Amino acid sequence: MSELTGNRIRTTAAKLGLPHLAETINEFARRADEGKLGYLDFLDLVLSEELAVRDDRRFRQGLRLSRLPHHKTLDEYDFSFQPELDPRKIKDLATLSFVEAKANAALLGPPGVGKTHIAIALAVAACRAGYSIYFTSLDDMVRNLKAAEAAGRLTSKLGSYLRPSVLVVDEVGYQPLERAEANLVFQVISKRYEKGSIILTSNKTFSEWGQVFGDEVLATAILDRLLHHCEVVPINGPSYRLKNRLQAIERETDVA
């Protein structure tokens, strides 16, 4: 490939919004020569790599906007430490069929069993698959909605929790809510109903949500919409955090 041709292709690729091709056309040409690629094979190579680069860029941008506290995967989850949890249930969720169906997933159990880890891993998988995601604790969501309501910007702020394909709501039940706060949560749940997926984690059983939301009727209304299309996964095992802390203490004792 002549230098003139290469420059012309780089200019055209840049105008078409194909930055990877513009940067690597010489490398593509070399690989085509070495592999003796035909025209269609060469075109397939260029377009496939450009798409892969674009998907990776979109994935990384999606993660940056997601507010995820960290990026965990299911490969990092120790299922052997939670023998009562059937890995097949989580792997079924990881197919993201519930996201495609705009259904929900609820991970219930005591603190430290890995609920948030699984929720984040599912969100990361959804982001990789092209879905928009957003992470919030319930307390942060309520606080932000209250502030927006006081400032007359509630509708705009609600959009932050309604637009994503997948909304992760962490730590439901750690702090009881006042009725006005619970009503804000109801607005999010009801407006997302059959329009987008929610992945939530909670240390409370659903029978305790009346206490969490300060009103049995309102809690029932929330649960009615949330559970109509929902995969519920109870995790009732030992705490990973306690396990790690005990291991650290044992190491410190051994050193001493």
Can I get a quick summary?
This protein has helices spanning 3-15, 19-35, 39-65, 87-94, 97-100, 115-128, 138-150, 154-162, 179-192, 209-212, 216-227, 240-255; strands at residues 104-108, 133-137, 166-172, 197-202, 230-234.
List keywords for this structure.
12 helices, alpha/beta, 5 strands, 256 residues, 5-stranded parallel β-sheet
**What is the topology, as strand order, of the major beta sheet?**
2-3-4-1-5
Over all CA atoms, what is the radius of gyration? 24 Å
Q: Separation of termini?
A: 68 Å
Query: What global shape is seen?
Result: elongated
Secondary-structure topology with pairs:
Layout lengths: L2 H13 L3 H17 L3 H27 L21 H8 L2 H4 L3 E5 L6 H14 L4 E5 H13 L3 H9 L3 E7 L6 H14 L4 E6 L6 H4 L3 H12 L2 E5 L5 H16 L1
Parallel strand pairs: 1-4, 1-5, 2-3, 3-4
Description:
The protein is an alpha/beta fold and 256 residues long. The protein is built from 12 helices and 5 strands. It has helices at residues 3-15, 19-35, 39-65, 87-94, 97-100, 115-128, 138-150, 154-162, 179-192, 209-212, 216-227, 240-255; strands at 104-108, 133-137, 166-172, 197-202, 230-234. The protein has a 5-stranded parallel β-sheet with strand order 2-3-4-1-5, sandwiched between helices. α9 (179-192) links the parallel β3 (166-172) and β4 (197-202). It is elongated, with a radius of gyration of 24 Å. The termini are far apart. InterPro entries: AAA+_ATPase (IPR003593), DNAC/IstB-like (IPR028350), IstB (IPR047661), IstB_ATP-bd (IPR002611), P-loop_NTPase (IPR027417). Keywords: ATP-binding, Nucleotide-binding. It comes from Streptomyces sanglieri. Residues 101-234 form the AAA+ ATPase domain.
